Amino acid sequence: MISWRKHYKKTLIAIGLLLSTSASFYGQDGDPKNGEKLFKANCSACHALDKQVIGPPLKGVVERVKTEGGVDRDWLHKWIKDNKALRASGDKYANEIFEKYNKTEMLQFPNLTEKDIDDILAFTTNPPAPEPEKTAETTPAEGTANAPADKTTTNIVIISLLAIAGLLVWILVKLRQLVTLGQSEDLAGLNATRVRSFSEIYQKYHYIGKGLLGILAILAAYGVWNWIMWIGVYKGYKPEQPIYFSHKIHAGEQKIDCQLCHSSAKYGKVSEIPSMNVCMNCHRTISEYNGKYLEPGKDKAFYDGEIQKIYAATGWDADKQQYTGKTQPVEWTRIHNMPDFVYFNHSQHVVAGEQAIINSFNKKNPNNKIDVVCKACHGKIDTMNVVQMANDFTMGWCIECHRTTEVDMNNGYNKEYFKNLHDKLKKQYPQDGGKITVDAIGGLECGKCHY
């Protein structure tokens, strides 16, 4: 009996050790919740749990590498920290993976500690279930509070219906009186005294008529003039595009710099529409929308469908992670379009005039300040789901800006280049304290914008 008990205790100890080793191997000794944060920060650019992105899906990776390559958790630690060194050492399985995924080299993560890697492996083995969203529930107190309001609403409806009924009765009474009057001799006498034609009215009140006609002519002329002056002005214009693109999500929620996509605005005359390859810089690894913001009337499936349009346009096969060569042109609808006789250079405003324009705009709009120069003309683009023309972009609008925007003379280039001109303008405009606006240095010359 004693011998059996000893063997029983040894067996339990052995089973316990086996289970603890197994749990350690499968990454369960880590913290899945912390692993989820680390995964999103370090791995999500190239990997997903349940599908291939640039790299393979990582759900159950611990068990998979054991089955495929016969390697353990220590091997995964080495691979994650420095897979290049592991391949250079001649590790067979490491080189097989490298070849299998088109020799795409994985980044090294020497900054991750052993515990960090254990947490990530725990997340890939047993990802925590998403927390259910809290829904607003009406408490008994709230229901009781709403009861008086509902009763008041009912009373208002009843009173309104009674008032309408009373009005209808009054109208019926008046109609009856009119019918009675029409059948009397008094009505015949009244009709005899009335004017029977428009000519009689005009002869009687021709001075008033001529005055009214004159006023109508002036209003008509003003309407025509106003209509002519607004030809070609499309403030508020926001057409639908073939692929839905929300600046609120990209520039607002994700804080993507305007010039990352519109790079030519800084160094060129025209701010070009970004090519689809610019979109693919990010969307090669972002195949679905997982953001928290949803525009009213749109859901996750809508945004996912728009991403698929990008893939169709560029010929990207998300499953094989390669381009097919079959592309589809995207016919974007242009929003901002200057007339052919107007010259406008983006780089001149974005680079040379950047700080001056921002300072001038914020001075004129203290309650609606901007942080980037683009917003001075294009409005707060980071709040727009659908881009619209935010300003008039008329000649008068541009001239007003040139008359009120001060040139930044603290800029080293301007300070040196306009040195003599600056002294001359101080004498010419002493009432402005030597402040130089764009119009003072040729900002109103016709040839600057028309050629």
From TrEMBL:
Organism of provenance: Chryseobacterium pennipullorum
Signal peptide as annotated in the record: 1-25
PROSITE patterns reported for this sequence: CYTC (PS51007)
GO molecular function terms listed in the Swiss-Prot or TrEMBL record: electron transfer activity; heme binding; metal ion binding
Segments of skewed composition (Low complexity): 137-147
This protein's record includes keyword Nucleotide-binding: no
Pfam annotation, one family: Cytochrom_C
Keywords: Heme, Iron, Membrane, Metal-binding, Signal, Transmembrane, Transmembrane helix
Coiled-coil intervals, chain numbering: none
Region (Disordered): 125-147
InterPro entries: Cyt_c-like_dom, Cyt_c-like_dom_sf, Multihaem_cyt_sf
Keyword Nucleotidyltransferase found: no
Protein name, per record: Quinol:cytochrome C oxidoreductase
Membrane-traversing stretches: 156-173, 212-233
Domain Cytochrome c, residue spans: 30-128
